[in-house]
Write a structure and sequence with these properties.
The protein has one domain. The N terminus and C terminus are likely disordered. The chain has 19 helices and two strands. The protein has 494 residues and is an all-alpha fold. Helix 3 runs parallel beside helix 7, helix 7 packs across helix 10 and helix 18 packs across helix 19. A two-stranded antiparallel sheet has the order 1-2. The longest helix has 29 residues.
């Protein structure tokens, strides 16, 4: 079996300049958000920054599209709170769309015979499934938009863009191609943005909101991206990369510094009070540990479970209180569902009504965005409520075949990363792929408790990393077909 070999070439290593650029982009963005109150930036200042930044990014699109990918990934988690919409003069005028245009330009301007660049020269089954799913999604949402009024039509099309943008990034990166060093820089972008957003969450919880002295679950919830549940999902998606890099270099002392940002991110995750996000993160870590070492998994998981069972009070209240409060046998009622808390009972009622909805419209569904409008016909007590489950939402609104495609996309992502992990020798790329395995697991479980794929700020980095893993997986079995450059990097066979 051929493998991607670890190279000692300096051109494939991360450099101090990469970390400096990452912090130079992320820290000013974080500084704007940090006060957690409205910060008025003069429109002239925003325009000036946009022009200077736009010129720099335009230069990157021409000269170094891979560096543009890196800068874009550093910005995108902040795009919900820092969209740069310039006062609403034009609805589509924002930083994210500007980046997409520049990436598209970079793709068109990209030379085809660059040394050391990994490119996916053919479409595979995964790409076909993704495109088919998006085609059905687009038709469903466009049909719904035609039935809506002007304002609702715009909202539906905006929802479509939030689905399509992250996947467009996947195809753009796939088309542009990346080098080994760029793949590692993409990993750096994920780790830096996750760490800084985790620090912002900790800052608000402990300094701005009084920390442990707060007892109202709603008041205590933090918001850095677009809500506490989405923030929890964000950590479930991307904390696995920090865990994977740490575990992959467990015996190297320098990597133990990752425990610090990991700890404060876990504290921010805890403070979201999102049970779904906590379960998703645990599932992600379990997937990372299982793929890293099945023996370690069989030892760690039972011990952790036993300790949590014997001494649950040692767990933070936001985890212990909400998890143990989910089911209590002493609650009145004879049915099993009566023993659950109100939130869980509500979700079970929604899911029961959603299943009835699917049974009545199994092929085409009831129409995109119609679940809240239709659920009251089946369960009046939860009328107008969200399904709190993305798989259920897709199946109910767009039909079972579309839901199968949706699950196939996630399953193929997981299987590609799971298989590729054992075939890559470079330590950092290997850790990146291990983190990707955990990220897919976290994404899947998080979407069983909510609709977390319709947020560009949360999902875009996932699809970017999917592009990186795709390029590595395509490159791996064809390594023998390429030549080796002067500095040890692989060159595409032309």
């Amino acid at each position: 079996m051929s493998t991607l070999t670890a190279t000692e070439s300096g051109s494939s290593r991360l450099r101090a300049a990469d970390a400096v650029l990452a912090l130079a982009v992320v820290l000013p963005l974080a500084a704007i958000i940090a006060p957690y109150r409205h910060v008025h930036l003069p429109q002239t200042f925003i325009l000036a920054v946009a022009i200077l930044g736009g010129l720099y990014c335009f230069k990157l699109a021409i000269d170094d599209a891979e560096q543009l990918i890196f800068v874009f990934l550093l910005y995108i988690p902040f795009q919900k709170v820092l969209p740069g919409d310039f006062g609403g003069a034009a609805r589509a005028a924002n930083f994210t769309n500007a980046f997409l245009l520049l990436l598209s330009f970079g793709w068109l301007m990209r030379p085809k015979n660059l040394q050391g660049v990994w490119r996916a020269g053919r479409w595979g089954a995964f790409d076909a499934v993704v495109v088919l799913f998006l085609a059905i999604l687009t038709v469903s949402m466009a049909a719904q938009a035609l039935r809506e009024t002007d304002e609702m039509r715009y909202e539906t099309l905006s929802d479509l863009k939030r689905w399509l943008t992250p996947v467009a990034v996947y195809f753009l990166i796939r088309g542009i191609g990346i080098t080994e060093r760029t793949a590692k820089k993409m990993l750096l972008a994920v780790i830096v943005t996750t760490s800084v957003i985790g620090l912002l969450g900790v800052k608000q919880f402990w300094l701005d909101m009084g920390g442990g002295s707060r007892h109202s679950l709603e008041e205590i919830r933090i918001e850095v991206t677009s809500g506490p549940s989405n923030l929890g999902a964000f950590f479930a998606y991307y904390l696995p990369y920090i865990v994977a890099v740490w575990l992959g270099n467990f015996w190297r002392f320098a990597y133990w510094g990752l425990v610090i940002p990991l700890a404060w991110c876990m504290d921010a995750l805890r403070a979201t009070f999102s049970r779904g996000a906590a379960v998703a993160f645990l599932a992600a870590v379990a997937a990372v540990v299982w793929r890293r070492s099945k023996g370690a998994f069989l030892v760690i998981v039972p011990i952790t479970g036993i300790l949590a069972y014997l001494n649950p009070i040692s767990l933070p209240y936001s985890i212990f209180g909400r998890m143990t409060g989910t089911y209590r046998s002493e609650r009145p009622g004879e049915n099993l569902t009566d023993k659950f808390d109100k939130s869980t009972q509500t979700r079970l009622v929604i899911w029961r009504g959603g299943w009835q909805m699917i049974r009545e419209s199994p092929v085409f569904g009831v129409g995109y965005g119609q679940f809240p409008k239709e659920i009251g016909k089946y369960e009046p007590e939860v009328a107008r409520m969200d399904p709190h489950n993305n798989v259920l939402k897709v199946a109910a609104e767009m039909g079972i075949p579309t839901a199968i495609l949706f699950l196939a996309v996630i399953g193929m992502c997981f299987w590609r990363g799971y298989r590729l992990y054992g075939r890559v020798e470079d330590p950092l790329l290997r850790a990146m792929i291990l983190g990707y395995v955990g990220s897919v697991a976290g994404l899947f479980v998080a979407n069983l408790f909510g609709s977390r794929l319709e947020s560009e700020e949360i999902t875009t980095q996932f699809w970017a990393m999917t592009a990186a893993v795709t390029l590595i997986s395509w490159r791996q079995p064809n390594q023998a077909e390429g030549a080796t450059g002067a500095e040890g990097e692989h060159v595409d066979a032309q």
